[in-house]
Write a structure and sequence with these properties.
single chain; 403 residues; mainly beta; 18-stranded antiparallel β-barrel; 2 helices; 6% helix; 63% strand
């Protein structure tokens, strides 16, 4: 991890330094502490756990994971430190695979009109390895994670290491108007195999929103992202000016959306290519007493491990239903695709669809068990892409705060 840090350029260091400076202060001022540790063990079968090409790629597996989380709260905000480690051992064909990560985040009200947030995270995982199902109740308060995976790299069994940080805030400038901004930096690294290239990305977002009513706000937002790849004379950037709207239809239904333009520039040793498109996103959730449903869709850009800034589109639906107090059914489906914009021969167009469902039964407030299954398939790029069907039986234990 220290090797990654040393490779960050001076412009990238600002979000890291500011975020790291904010986190200890938030932890020191907090008053209520919660410690939660989840441990999970499972056994299952996957017809193609890494989405590699070739016949007879299936294997049974065992999986162990542990996820500790420390949360400290007070009336002005919260700070949290979380980590995870997951190890999967395959009975045949594959070596064991592990993934791990850590994240520190904080959110503080620094004055009556100004709120700040910061996050620093590190993750190491193999792109395309299945995580074998989501469990637990869907939380509509959490925004969708659109940063992973780099689906252009599916099937290569490449380990991706990511070090990222962000710091931002929102300032209420009048009773109805708010200005928000964020600085973000990300370092993505791969093994030096001659095919993929690591990258450093810096991005900035600035927005303004106006409360039309108690339930509706509209605004403008602009963002820019600049990527430098380790490969010589390879870089890229994209810009997104957008109109935004947020509306609360009722106490249980909320929608946020943005729509605008997308401008991409990709520079390679073969020349510079400019591309345009539509940028936007929609995030809608309905929270009920026993069921939660969230829909998301997006259109933007993403740097890939081939040294290209690709257009990216996707949509997904998540659902959870609490059958009884300790029994939860959860299902999700996602579709995403990337379209290369540069003149690199190795850049790929690819599509990826995933679907999964799980049933979890609570034997007590600390012990759970269930079954999860899923289907994944990639396509595009002139390749004969494989699919994967997997199922797993698991048991999960929780230590610490059960609230």
């Amino acid at each position: 991890m220290s090797g990654l840090t040393h490779r960050l350029r001076a412009g990238v260091a600002l979000p890291f330094g500011a975020a790291l400076a904010m986190l200890p202060a938030a932890l020191a001022e907090a008053q209520t502490t919660r410690l939660i540790v989840d441990g999970q063990a499972g056994v299952g079968y996957s017809t193609n756990p890494f989405l590699v090409t070739g016949d007879d790629a299936g294997s049974a597996f065992t999986e162990l994971s542990i996820t500790p989380q420390l949360v400290r709260l007070d009336e002005k905000g919260e700070a949290a430190l979380s980590a995870y480690y997951r190890r999967t051992d395959y009975f045949t064909r594959y070596d064991s695979a592990d993934s791990y990560g850590v994240e520190a985040r904080a959110r503080r009200q620094l004055s009556q009109t100004f709120n700040a947030h910061a996050v620093v995270s590190y993750d190491s995982s193999i792109i395309g390895q299945s995580s074998y199902g989501l469990v637990g109740v869907l939380d509509p308060a959490l925004p969708p994670d659109l940063g992973t995976p780099d689906i252009a790299l599916l099937g290569l069994r490449q380990r991706q290491k990511s070090l990222s940080a962000a710091i931002g805030g929102d300032l209420r400038v009048s009773q109805r108007d708010t200005v928000n901004g964020e600085l973000r930096a990300n370092r993505i690294s791969y093994a030096d195999n001659g095919i993929l290239t690591s990258s450093t990305t810096k991005s900035a977002t600035l927005g303004w929103s106006h409360a039309v009513s108690a339930r509706t706000s509209v605004g403008l937002q602009g963002s820019g992202s600049w990527s430098n790849f380790d490969r010589d004379r390879t870089s890229g950037a994209f810009y997104q000016p957008q109109v935004t709207v947020n509306h609360q239809f009722s106490s249980s239904v909320t929608v946020s959306a943005a729509l605008g333009a997308l401008f991409i520039t990709s520079r390679t040793p073969l020349g510079t290519v400019h591309s345009t498109g539509i940028s936007g996103n929609v995030f809608a959730c309905k929270a009920g007493q026993r069921s939660n449903t969230c829909f998301r869709a997006y259109s933007d850009a993403q740097p890939t491990g081939f040294g290209d800034v690709s257009k990216r589109q996707g949509a997904g639906l998540d659902y959870s239903y609490q059958v009884r107090e300790n029994d939860v059914v959860r299902a999700s489906v996602d579709y995403s695709r990337v379209q290369e914009t540069s003149n690199l021969l190795q850049a790929r167009n690819a599509s990826f669809i995933t679907g999964g469902a799980s049933y979890e039964h609570g034997f007590s407030r600390r012990l759970f068990g269930g079954v999860a299954g899923g289907y994944r398939r990639a396509s595009g790029g002139g390749r004969d892409w494989p699919s994967d069907l997997n199922v797993k039986i698991f048991v999960r234990a929780r230590w610490g705060d059960t609230q």
